[in-house]
Here is the input.
Amino acid sequence: MNIFVCIKQVPDTETKITPNGDGTYIETTSIKWIMNPYDEFAVEQALLTKQANSGSTVTVVRVGGVKDTETLRTALAMGADDAILVEADDNLDSFMTAKALKGAIEKSGNSADVIFTGKQAIDDDCLQVPQLLAGMLNLPSVSVVVGCEEAGGKFTLKREIEGGTLEVYEVNSPAIIACNKGINTPRYASLPGIMKAKRKPLAKHSLADVGVADSDRRVKYSNFQLPPEKPPGKKFDAMDEANQASIVAEVVGLLRTEAKAI
Amino acid sequence: MAKVLVFTELTSDHVKSVTLEILGKLTGNDVDVAAIGQVPAGAVAELAKYGAANIHSLKGDNLDKYSPEGYANALKEFIGNGGYDYVFAGATSLAKDLFPRLSGMFDAGMASEVTNFTMDGGTFAGTRPLFSGKCLAKVEIEGPKPHFVTVRPNALGMPENENAAAGNVVDAAANAGEIRAAIKEIIKGASEKLDLTEANIIVSGGRAMKEAANFKILDELADVIGATVGASRAAVDSGYAPHAMQVGQTGKTVAPTLYIACGISGAIQHLAGMRTSKCIVAINTDPDAPIFTKADYGIVGDLFQIVPILTEEFKKIM
Here is the structure.
């Protein structure tokens, strides 16, 4: 199987986000970058699929800034065979990203039997790329996948929807599978894995190389700002059991009369 | 004035409230509604009351349950024939899966999960949170039409005024085309309650819940006030609650009217997922817990003592 994984490099969840000077994006100079957490599940699922299908290869693809390429090396250290980097700004929209991924996969010369992605990237939170890519490659896709079994190129997938309900899909390869937390437990890169990763092939392309132009932009952002801060609320000390009943009664009263929340 | 289609899902006789929220914001435009399947009479009345001119029921083979390809193919043809400038939907599980595929079929752009928008001069401009709400930005769509927009449930609020329109019911034949990824089975979730993303009131538990069985006291509170129960990442990672209940940057982003955080310290990734809640109550023994900086009403106390009193107090007024 030719297995592809699409990953993104995003600011660490603990990172403080600050808008840049002209409000067109965020300040990216002092950010700690990590692999998008949902993409770790995609890499792991790709490696599990490879283990179950001898002779398979796992190619990891990333579109984004080149301040560092640690995320691709991490995926290679976990066990992916080779990597493709499409060098681009970090604020591409979903359409451009999907088109660049399509171009990079086609340029690899291997047709994808399965493509794993995370269900969403936690930077722009758009949840568009897996489905857009599926449309562009004319492949079926299943998103928010929390269970994945494969036998003879047929995937049985559990997609999570509202209220924890699961839709069970069957789909034959080739397909795109967008992974959610719960699908597996991503492995850590081993020390030998990290050493090996340094020698694994990493191809680099420009956006133009993979057929993406400025005119492919569909979504324009401006006026990045921090959300308005709330005025400080009321705080009550209810550590002493004697006060608890009266304090709770007061808060419930405020919820009804002041906040009108109940 | 723009020609707009609002896609809605049919779950029961009622329309999802996010559909009505969207209709309220589209007053002054030429607005139709479409659903896959027969729109029930009760829903038709509601949709007409808030401005739907035509209400289309799309019918065809293999459309009885959702499939990304079947729904996208059916809507592609309908939207293409209708000459719409914009296509809206609530950001539900279904629309979040369907709309990107559909927008791609038109080579068109899509704004995901906006929390507010305007249609000045018939042109869409929206606001959406990025980085799980750590940042907000203005979003505009360029390129070929129609443009696609999903709207976060509970963000706009229900329209203040009704805006009655014709509400003509129209049947349309739809073609699902080739479906390669199809649902074979649906496994119902344990909860009969509203999903976290749609809930008006949420009661969440954190690491201080100590064990899964203790979520019982949150369930009791939730039952009294009609809330859905959530959990912090710490509680999920400790195995006290399933991931489907997780609120935060790697869980669900929620915006209820009332959010009650019990034994949650308020890590930045949790705050990101719930900070746009309209009213926040926090219960925590640590007076310096970050959750108190976001709380409208903070109670410094032991949740195991406070929550049962809270439940009893709510019983008196509900």
Q: What stands out?
A: The longest strand of chain A covers residues 141-151. Chain A touches chain B through 89 residues (CB under 8 Å). The longest helix of chain A spans residues 241-257.
